[in-house]
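One such given next:

>
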Amino acid sequence: MRMPLTAPSPQNLAQWMLEAFRTQVRVYHRAELPQAEGCLLVVANHRSFLDAPLMLWGFQRPVHLVSHHYLAQVPVVSQLIEHLGGFHLGPSRQSRSQLFRLFRQAAQYLHQGEHVAIFPEGAELIAQTSSPSQGADFRRGFAHLALRSGIAHLPIVPVAIVSRQEASGPIFPLPLLRMLDSSEPMFQRDGWHPLVIYQRVELHIGVPRRIRPEEIQAYRGGRAAAVTNALAQEMQEAAHQLTLAGNQHPW
């Protein structure tokens, strides 16, 4: 009698993907992560499709990854992300109701004591040729999510994915991706979408930064733009400093 095939766990699938590409991984913690609450909102830089399995590998527990809208349009890739515990953003020009639906879904995971990870750089670097030390501006979506989550003192954890050795090259023409997501500004130009495969990579997990009550009060009191801008810049700088530190020590 043939036994039914079962889907691998997200952690096993992440490990299989990293092993398939022979990616060597080292994980560094700058501080002990809080355990009592159970949930973390993780923000990280983004240059490779391997960033998703790296997050699960680094945290050694389920992490719900917010992935780009166009990946939901790609057969196999969409299912792969779902098996990794991910869920998709709406299109770049999504309505407020679509955006709030995403926030509710992410907040539900957090209230259940599960981690949520977001790549605030969006497609800025993953859709073009970039250097391992290069960074991009953090978008404010994660800050809105944190401040609207209803979780007091929610810990936000900056993470730097530091590539120490990699292989890269063109894989998809951007006009083809434009057919999958015409709302993404990065797909409006000519050229090719690169594929970055980490050979040696470090995950630098930074010090958790908790949402403060006065920030929630200011957010609800008409200063949402100022509060989210400040939080996005703070987390961007934290990730940048982790990347610099990671590049300064030998493998």
Observations:
- The chain has a mean pLDDT of 85.
